[in-house]
Amino acid sequence: MFERQVKIPDAEEILQKMPLSFELKKIRDERTRAVADVITGKSEKMLIIVGPCSAHESAPVLEYVEKLGKLNEKVKDKLVIVPRIYTNKPRTRGVGYKGMFSQPDPTKSEDIVKGIYAIRALNLKAMEASGLAAADEMLYPANYDYVGDLLCYNAVGARSCENQLHRLVASGIDGPVGIKNPMSGAVNVMLNSIFAAQSAQVFKLNSWQVKTSGNPLAHAILRGAVDGYGNDIPNFHYETVMQVAEGYKNSGLSNPAIIIDANHSNSGKNFRQQIRICEEVMQNRLYDKDFKFIVKGFMLESFLEEGCQTEDKIYGKSITDPCLGWSDTEKLIFDIAEKA
């Protein structure tokens, strides 16, 4: 049974009230091209998508992204940095804090209209403060129109990659879309999702029949897997990555590219393992030119303070998955840049 609570304004109405200025649109478009150049191989830079597991409070996220903007200036010859401003949080069992989009104040009840305005304000201020456009997870495809003009990167999560609507909407996004392997780790499922996203589609989206031209910038994110007993199975090692590369070769997909998610099941959510994982991947890039060709970058979970907390008491500390702290993040990014 559904109880209608609040009528959500159409995206056009909200975008008119909180538009992307010409100056900020220029930043967003430039950052989108920079990411696209990495995915297509036009640029040999590495892509670093980094930030908190979830953006639960604006002030520390803005401070963090401003730090990233300054760091980007120091490594921009080698890296393309994209801040994670993740405003939707998937929940394994369907309950709990679901992100700023649904719950702009994690201590209060859901308020989606307020959440939409909050995430637009956060992204606009973050671009102004850092000169960087952000990445977000497309957890709910129907929400894309409310934020799509702000982002230079979209991710489809492990629980969503098998969903038909996610695949179809990804086919119409004008920019890079990373598609994670499913929780099972099935590579063929991920590659089928990428194939669907790279293909032209016709489908119903909200109140419209829409047609897309396909998105050649759809690509793979390896985040590890979970077996039937709940054990984490990493998939960032050389042998696993090269099996995915072989699958790419046999699939006929455009722009073969893999991003390594160094947290989640690759690290067993042991956030400090992200440092070791990046080190191993960078060594493999030095070892094998084919590995280097296809592994384009990393996705990292990081915030001002390391670890996580159950309640929002410590400023700049995650309330969802544990994250690297800023000091370790800065050292790691400098190390990746040096070896890129």
Overview of this protein structure:
The chain is α/β, with parallel strands linked by helices and 340 residues long. The protein has one domain: Aldolase class I (TIM Barrel, Alpha-Beta Barrel). Helices cover 40% and strands 16% of the residues. It contains 11 helices and 12 strands. Strand 6 and strand 7 form a beta hairpin. The longest helix is centred in the N-terminal third of the chain and has 19 residues. The radius of gyration is 19 Å and the shape is globular.
Number of E-state strands:
12
Instruction: Output the CATH topology.
Output: TIM Barrel
User: For the report, how would you describe the main beta sheet?
Assistant: 8 strands, parallel
Within CATH, the superfamily carries the name Aldolase class I
Q: Please report the number of helical segments.
A: 11
Helical content band = 25-40%
- Distance from first to last alpha carbon: 54 Å
Strand content is 15-25%
How many domains would you count in the coordinates?
A: 1
| CATH class categorisation | Alpha Beta
- What do the pLDDT scores average to? 96
Can you tell me the CATH architecture?
Alpha-Beta Barrel
Write down the Rg: 19 Å
